[in-house]
Amino acid sequence: METDYINQHKRNLVYALFCCLLLTACSWGTQRPEKASSQAEEPEIFPDYRDVTVPVNISPLNFRLTREADHQYVLITGEKGGRLECDGQRSLRFDPDAWRKLLEENAGSSLTLTCSSREAGGWKTWKSFQIHVDERPIDSHLVYRLIEPGYEKWHIVGIYQRDLESFDEKTIIRNDMTGYNCINCHSFCMNDPNRMMLHMRAVHDGTYIIRGKEIERLKTKTKQTISNLTYPYWHPSGKYITTSVNDIKQFFHAVKEKKMEVFDLESDVVVYDVEQHKILSAASLITKDAFETFPAFSLDGKWLYFCSAPAREMPADYDKVRYHICRVAFDAGKGALQLPVDTLVRADSLSYTFPRISPDGRFLMYTETAYGQFPVWHKDAEIRMLELETRQPVDMTLLNSADTESYHSWSSQSDWVVFSSRRDNGLYTLPYICRIQADGRPAKPFLLPQEDSEKYDYQLYSYNLPELVTGEVTISPYAIQQRAHEGPTTQVAFE
Amino acid sequence: MKKQLVFNRPVWIFLLFLVGSFLFVDLNFRYWFHFMEQFMLFQTTSVYWKELAAQLGGWNEYIAEYLTQAFPFAAGPAILVTTLSGLIALLFYKYQQACCGKASMGLSILPLFLFWLFPSETIVPMLVLVWALVGTVVCQSISNRNIRMLVGVLLVPLLYYVAVPAPFLYAVLLLLHEWMRADQRKPYLYTGVLLAWTFLLPLLVMRLWLVVPMREVWMGKYMYHPEYPVPQSFWLIFLSFPVLTLVGRLCAKWQERLRPAKWLAAECIFWAGLMAALIALRKDPMQQAYQYDYYARNGAWDKIVAHAEKEGVHDFDALVYVNLALSYTGRQTTDLMKFPQVGETGFIPYDPRTRLGLIQASEVAWQVGQVNAAQRFAFVGVLSSQRCVQPRLMKRLVETYLVNGEYRAAEKYIRILEQTPRYKAWAAEQRQYLGEKESQSAGWIQAKRAFLPVTDNPFDLTKTLPSALAFLIDDHPDNQAAFDYGMCYLLVYKNLPAFMHYMPLYKERHQSFPKLYQEAICLYYASKGKMADAANDYPIDSEVTNRMQQFLKTARSLSAANLKQLYGDTYYYYTEFMPTPKQ
């Protein structure tokens, strides 16, 4: 009798466990909208992926509806076939494999997304919107610095690489490994992850040049130049790096319309010979009557682009300095500049900075602001583009926003750009990716997707200097750390 | 049974220790812990949890941050620290029992006095000790030797992940226990395996899992501020446990000879005396500043002034808060001279870099209406803190963004604060002001906007206070806080001509003048030999004039002490007898 009683209990326990498992399994299934009312408007979503154009190899564009809802649901149908559905309480996260398959199937066409939300009054289904899948893939990795968008103090600074085809983010180097110094200005030669440079300031200071597994540490201040090498750009041959040398200062505004100002007391442009360890005097633009900064080579290596403004009394005239975008011929064989200087974009009433030439040599992209060369804190800063052959501007309205757009970088195939923008909250800079079509017109850009779209809500770091590279940076962070702590430092010469 | 309880020495000593610990923290370091709470921010989001769970020691930090929410309450720090101390003492006692057969509560509480001598910034080190001792005691309790050793090895990675550097202490204590209990079979192999496993694990983690600096892989990220060297107290605290275990072992026979009843009273007196001495002597040197910071944080400006009047002002940081409290309570121009003035650094810290300095700079800037500077120092205060969070300054950021009309930036911080149990109500309240129209319904926002600077200038309030204030006053002469700060600055530096330059401006807006201004005006006129004209030009009370004339007549005849007693709160006494601060 007692045995029966125990068996009965065991059986009940097994039933209960089975029911629990069944319930759990049911709750894991997708909750689809039932008796939903149709809404005429498109849903508000974060990040705003409505009508954006994305590369075929991009990681899932996870997002959330910004309205209060108990549950969210989205159904994606591909123009060329395939469907994908997803639901969630706080956000919508797609299965990466299913997403990849859907994008590959619909390369060159569009996906239609229909979102639903379960609210107090039941399910609502919102007007569908589209995501355009471009068949041209983007470079696989994005390298950026994460830094607090602070004023004069930094705490944790790190350079990271993000695999754009997944959500993997890896550290290239972080300053907690190098004595909490400042790490900045990472730059790649022709989007090549194996040829990179960066600077460290304060402890372990120097310019670090990474070629494959080799790391060189340089002391770059010379008697003839006003500072260490600053804003860099590689020559396509990998033999030279052009940089500015700047005496950088900053101050803080008292009025609410402005935050802070970064300006140069002096600045010049030089070319550094990577193999000879010398700054080439014949390729330097060192003048007292002009400020030169933010240099860049054309992708054929024959032109050196830079910003130039007539010297002014600083900081008194900080808001009167306006930079032209100029270029000068560069003879890579001799390592020398060949005058005259050609002014491409004349700063009559505005100032222009960050010139970047598309790898196919057709376009010059730059940033426009009211004054100065450091537009990161200027709300008015916008990205502009010029077709070099015709010298005609391209309409970039679709790329820009009411807030700051500043740094930008081209993909290796000239079809995508990544740029920094403060459009989300006006304070933290986030990376946006934009398709540049054959005629130069931009498509609607999209925010770098994250596995959890809430990440941007709570992250207290800005994405600084986003750079697209064609593969993973393979150098170990420990190797950079070790090089910072040990080994010889090469003093750069000026000849 | 009753007799056993009454004469149970460990219980009495333990209880005595708990009382002593509570009193020590509550009397001496309460405000320190109140202050340190501002640098932690427990959030309920999955993003936050995942971020911590992905780090070494992240779980321990999660628990520490959760518990730290008790710190802002009056007796919160004392209760929490005492509870953790008690738990550590009990676990260590239990461990000693297992090692030596007989344990001493005196030895068990001894390491915890190191926390009295070297109070930590957070409870993270205490929690690490709890983890290590819990692991050790759990392992010890397994009677089967082989299973015990297996569990001992398996617990290492768990402890390492949850509460690094707990496994290092755990391994050492575990091995001590095994060697003390070993008879014929010495645990050589186990020692080798456990030590190798424990001390090679960090290197494996560095190579295979995480990219972390060497210190973090051994110490974790949250034990101490990673930018500063590991304090010596860490080694003392962690080594004290194995060392005292060995001492306990050596003294075990001697302890057996003691008769509890006979020595209990003497032992209790000893411990009580030791604790009383520490409570009396180990004061927090910054207590006044942290106490005022706590009052300021809660808007209890009256309490600051009342305390300063009663106890005096003991350091510059406290003085900054006193002057700020005088401004908030409208007493700056009447009671300024009641407190010792040291010049500019008594009004605002110079080029602040410290945690407290940045908070103070933000508070002063906010009060005088320099909202951008308040925002800037709050921002730097947040990002330079160890965990890059500072809820009090994040609240200030929300306020400054609302005043400046930067609603999206304000919303970012509101959203973060809404995910914290402690600040969510405040954050939710601010949400209603997001928007141009909505923000106009908030009186405090309108009040701040009324005094926003109009003329741009590059002057840093903390480096060039007078110039920065001059711009604020020129833009808004009715900005009373800025005006008073500016005038007080001039008066403290005895710059009467510059002070008098502003008096016509003040006269245009006010019928009566505060006592400090009246005294300064009288002194200025007296220095020109036209004291009688002062009352014609400005509204000077006859009481002020008479008192000053009395001072001038009797100054030479009175003793210094009498003079100070009678006129110590006047501006002319300050001018005559106090040195001018260096600029």
UniProtKB/TrEMBL annotation, chain A:
Gene3D superfamilies: TolB, C-terminal domain, YVTN repeat-like/Quinoprotein amine dehydrogenase
Pfam family of the protein (one): PD40
UniProt xrefs under InterPro entries: 6-blade_b-propeller_TolB-like, WD40, WD40/YVTN_repeat-like_dom_sf
Source domain of life: Bacteria
Protein name (record): Cytochrome c binding protein
Organism expressing this protein natively: Parabacteroides faecalis
TrEMBL record, chain B:
InterPro entries, sorted: DUF6057
Transmembrane regions: 12-33, 70-93, 105-134, 154-176, 188-212, 232-251, 263-281
Domain of life: Bacteria
Pfam family for this entry, one: DUF6057
Keywords of the record: Membrane, Transmembrane, Transmembrane helix
Keyword Repeat set for record: no
Name this protein carries in UniProt: DUF6057 family protein
Species of origin: Parabacteroides faecalis
